[in-house]
Design a protein that fits this description.
With about 240 residues, this protein is of the alpha/beta class. Helices cover about 35% and strands about 20% of the residues. The protein contains eight helices and six strands; from the N terminus they run E-H-H-E-E-H-E-H-E-H-H-H-H-E. The chain has a six-stranded mixed beta sheet with strand order 5-4-1-2-3-6, sandwiched between helices. A hairpin with a 2-residue loop joins strand 2 (about 65-75) and strand 3 (about 80-90). It starts with 9 loop residues before the first strand and ends with a strand.
Length: about 240
């Protein structure tokens, strides 16, 4: 089935998230108590709720999106380009811009969203933050009443599972084993909070997010046994 998909109908994406507040102490008392309950299972007795707050960006109830990067193929005869762009700044602005992109260019039944671990993270996170920010869900993220085969989402990690429910593989590892050249990243996901709050370097986060979008597209090409993108085929718009 992968071979039948038109590359131009797929929107590849990645998000970067951070805790809503820089410090645990900045949360109101109710939020602190709820965070303590929410994180209890993951942190067990190893960390206090305050110490574990470093990871709050992973949960949509306690985090926020600071960047959504997207990429899509454009085919003109034998010429192939992969165009990458990012939405950043205020979260509401990010979400509304992303929704408008879906509405204008990727809203038809033929269109599909693709991300690495997207079904577990990116897609539900975006949907939850839209609901929290009082933004009506776009059709591509409104899954209520849809049958599994009607959900317009692809997940490169799920594709790699081949039916194995317990197999987690990072994008970096998958790219490595598939022989995809690793981009020179100067950060990883665990650093996003500090780069955002302490270094105030959003451009660095955007670059990191866009590299993951390109790598996700490269993994998808390898899953179809197609030629990888060359640097000259990747265009930032």
């Amino acid at each position: 089935m992968l071979y039948k998909l038109n590359l131009e109908h797929i929107l590849f994406l990645d998000i970067e998230t951070v805790p809503q507040k820089q410090q645990f102490s900045e949360l109101d008392e109710t939020s602190q108590a709820l965070w303590e309950l929410k994180s209890q299972y993951q942190r067990k007795e190893e960390f206090t709720a305050e110490e574990f707050y470093e990871r709050a960006g992973i949960w949509a109830e306690f985090g926020k999106i600071v960047c959504i990067s997207v990429g899509y193929f454009n085919m003109k005869g034998e010429q192939r380009t992969f165009r990458v762009t990012s939405f950043h700044g205020d979260e509401v602005h990010i979400l509304k811009q992303f929704k408008q992109l879906l509405k204008d260019h990727f809203g038809q039944a033929k269109h599909i969203l693709c991300a690495h671990n997207g079904k577990e993270f990116d897609f539900p996170y975006i949907a939850r933050r839209m609901v929290i920010n009082e933004i009506n869900l776009p059709y591509k993220l409104d899954l209520f009443g849809k049958k599994p085969w009607e959900v317009p989402h692809l997940d490169t990690m799920e594709l790699w599972k081949f039916g194995d429910y317990k197999h987690y593989t990072s994008l970096k590892l998958l790219a490595h084993v598939l022989g995809i050249p690793s981009p020179k990243e100067d950060m990883d996901g665990s650093m996003v909070k500090d780069v955002y709050y302490e270094e105030n370097d959003l451009d660095r986060i955007i670059t990191y997010c866009e590299l993951d979008v390109v790598t996700t597209a490269q993994v998808f090409l390898r899953m179809r046994n197609e030629d990888l993108l060359k640097d000259e085929e990747i265009k930032k718009v």
